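hey so i finally got around to running both of the ones u sent me last week. sorry it took forever, my laptop kept dying halfway thru and i had to restart like 3 times lol. anyway pasting them below in the order u listed, first the sequence line then the C-alpha cell line for each. didnt double check formatting much so if smth looks off just lmk and ill redo it

first one:
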Amino acid sequence: MGCDVSKSVEVNDVNTAEDEAADFSDNQIDTIRSTWPILSRDMVGFGEKVFLRIFLEEPRIKTVFKNFSYMDENNLKQSKIFLDHVTKFMQVVDSVVDSLEKPKTEIQQTLLMLGARHATFDGFDIEYFAVYIKVLMSVWETAIGEEFIPEVRESWNIVFTYIVRYLCQGYELYVLESEHEKSCNGNSSVT
C-alpha cells in the first residue's frame, strides 16, 4: 500500500496565516517608509553589517554557508558569493517594505518558500531566525541613529517578526512534509 496523500501534513491556508499576522497600522507603515530610505541607500553595506554581526552573535550560522564559511571578514567583503547573498537578503526586506500596503499573499508565499529553502541547508536550525531579528534591530538602530525612537523600534520589530513568522512557517512545513514523505517512502513496500 502506498502513502495516502490526502492524509498529508495539515497546512494553514493563507487566510488563516493572515489572520494571525495583524495588518500594519498606517502609523507603522509611515514610520517604516520614512526610515527605510536611510537603509536602502546602501543595501549591500547594511546587509554586510547584518551578516557580519550575525556571524559574531552565532558563529554556527556561518558554518551553514559552505561557500564562504572559511573566510575572514575582509575576504567576505570581497566575496561575490557573500555579497550576492547579502543583496538577496536585503531585497527580501525591500520587498516586504514595498508590500506593506498591498495584499500580503504574494510576499507571504515568497517568505514561506524562503523559509522552506533554509530547511534544506545542512546545519541550519530554525532557532537561528531569532538571531536575525536581534541583529537587524541593532544594525538598524546604529544606522538610523537618534531617529530610532521607540515608535521606530516597535514598527521595525513588527516587520522583522512578520518576516520571521513566515520564514519559520515555511521551514516547519518543509520539515513536516519531508518527514511525511520519508514515512510514506518507508511504508511503500508494505502490502
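and the second one:
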Amino acid sequence: MQIRTGVALVLLVAFAFVAAEDGDSKESIEQLVVETLVKPETCTITSEMGDTLQIHYTGRLMDGKVIDTSLSREPLVVELGKRSVITGLEQALVGVCEGQKIKATIPAHLAYGKRGYPPTIPADSTLEFEVEVISLSQQTPWQKIVNDVLPLLCLALVPTLLGLVGLYLYNKAHAQPQGKKKNKDKKSKKK
C-alpha cells in the first residue's frame, strides 16, 4: 500500500505541467500539483477511494486571496469518491495519511471551470488548497460492497427486469382469452 501511494504521488507530480501565459507573470497550470508540507514519521495507512477523511483546509486564489477556510469551523468530512468536494481536491486527498499536510495547486478544469463560482471565484481560476488531514477512517468491507458491487448489480438488474416485464406483456398479448378456451374445452368434451 505504501509503494502504491508513493507511485501515485510521483505520477501526479511527474505529470504536472506549468505554462506561463504570454506577456503575463500569471501562471496557469494544466495538471494537479500536490506538494507534501508535513508528513508524519509513521504513515502506515494511506487514504483510498471510499475512505472518510476529516480535514481542515484553506483555499486561495493564485493571488493569495482566501476563498474559504474550515479553520474557524469543525473539520470538513470528506468521503473520497462521493464528489463532496471539487475534483482536484478529491484527487489530491488520495494517498495521504492522518496528520499529513499538503498543498494542492488545482487547475480550473478540476475546480470550478469556465463558470467559476461568482462572486468569490472568477471563471477559469486556478486554486491553491492547504489541507491538514485530521483523521482517516478506512471503508469497511461492507461499505466496499455497497459502494462498488451494489451499483453494478443494479445496472444488471434493470435490463433483466425490463426483459421480464416485456416477456410478461408479450405472453399476455398473445394468450387466448380464458372464455374462448373454456368454450373449446366444453365443445371437445361433447364430441
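quick thing i noticed on the 2nd:
The longest helix spans residues 141-174.
anyway thats it, ttyl
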